[in-house]
Design brief:
alpha/beta, six-stranded mixed beta sheet, globular, 2 helices, 99 residues
Length: 99
């Protein structure tokens, strides 16, 4: 699968910090609340930058319950998401590929 955008996500209890880049540069950065409304704000900003989540790979660390809202969002929207499993190396990770 070819990706046009890569989204690095710092997940914490109260916020999600997104950095979106293409092959050349960071396109934008946004910090939102770690809830459904925050994810909607991210999605709105992403679309205003003419990005397509279907052409993007979201990457985040394993943070247990703090990443559950993000995981549900990626699954429901069929977005590709990479995150290492707890206590594993980069070679041992989960990758949910969207269509």
């Amino acid at each position: 699968m070819q990706f046009s955008f890569y989204v690095g996500i710092d997940v914490s209890k109260n916020s999600l910090d997104f950095a979106v880049r293409d092959a050349r540069e960071v396109v934008f950065h946004i910090q939102v609340d770690n809830n459904g409304l925050g994810l909607q704000q991210f999605e709105d900003q992403y679309q205003s930058e003419e990005g397509r989540l279907s052409e993007s790979l979201l990457c985040c660390e394993h943070t247990g319950v703090y990443s559950q809202v993000l995981l549900s969002f990626a699954t429901q929207c069929d977005i590709s998401l990479w995150r290492p499993l707890r206590g594993t190396t980069a070679k041992e990770c989960t990758l949910h590929l969207g269509t």
